[in-house]
Amino acid sequence: MDQGSIARILKQASGGEDDIQQLQKALLDYLDENTETDASLVFSRKFYIAQWFRDTTMETEKAIKSQKDEDSSEGTHHAKDIETTGQIMHRAESRKKFLRSIITTAASQFSTLKIYSGTVDYEDACLIVRYLASMRPFAQSFDIYLTQ
Q: Region (Disordered): which ranges (predicted)?
């Protein structure tokens, strides 16, 4: 991955969100801007929003399940795990809130004039997609699947 380009995109896309949210927003803005030239981008945009929301929900469920498993074992690192679970839950809620705001603003944008930010072009959008895909669990464990 071209970390220099990712850093450049993050610097151009100003916002208080974490890096993943900034990249997601930049990609969604690019897709939204180019829906007039390619109608399939509307589906792609909705798919990404739904997939990211699902991923966030799955991450939350895994955190809750691991917390319940730890409750039954009562290890010495239990307090640290609860803190980590709390952080995961907080991050998941902020991501869900971000995605909900994207959905509600997307519905209201159809009646307003779009303003193009111009921070992402086609090559940057492809890079963002590859980077976000590499963060998914399947992509991270792909070598394990091939080995087995």
A: 63-84
